[in-house]
Design brief:
Elements (H helix, E strand, L loop, with lengths): L5 H14 L4 H11 L3 H14 L5 H4 L4 H14 L5 H58 L2
Helix pairs in contact: 1-2, 1-6, 2-3, 5-6
Length: 143
């Protein structure tokens, strides 16, 4: 599951664990052990906070809203509430969020591709345009 959003990966892992008859905790632990993403470390810290009944506001303040809502939903699941239907709905929202992020990157791409044109090719065109003019001026100034 490389090259996939970490929050979507967590959601899919927990969903697969729930559909296989395992607990939410098992799915979260599978995600933490399988992922090398920094989000997995955040989830591990969050899980320790939940286990110790400590607030995790210091973690959730810096997270994307989709990730924050996913952690809140998983916390409800850790407390024994059924979350599978809500998890499926949240997966759809995460997918939409990923698509919007991809669309934003696609819109930035033409501008980013123009940078080499201006930096590398534009000076070359200026030389082609003004080169003969400068050469003729240098010839006229040379006695």
């Amino acid at each position: 599951m490389e090259n996939i959003s970490p929050s979507l990966s967590l959601s899919l892992t927990v969903r697969a664990a729930l559909e296989s008859g395992y607990s939410v905790r098992t799915g979260i632990l599978q995600f933490i052990s399988a992922s090398r993403d920094p989000f997995a470390e955040i989830v591990g810290t969050w899980l320790m906070c939940v286990d110790q009944n400590q607030p995790f506001h210091f973690i959730s303040d810096h997270l994307h809203p989709c990730r924050r809502s996913l952690l809140l939903l998983l916390e409800k699941g850790l407390r024994g509430l059924p979350i599978l239907n809500h998890l499926v709905e949240l997966e759809e929202e995460i997918i939409q969020s990923c698509e919007m992020e991809i669309e934003a990157q696609i819109q930035k791409t033409p501008l980013l591709l123009m940078i080499p044109v201006f930096v590398l090719m534009f000076p070359a065109y200026l030389l082609l345009l003004f080169g003969p003019i400068i050469q003729s001026l240098l010839i006229k100034l040379d006695p």
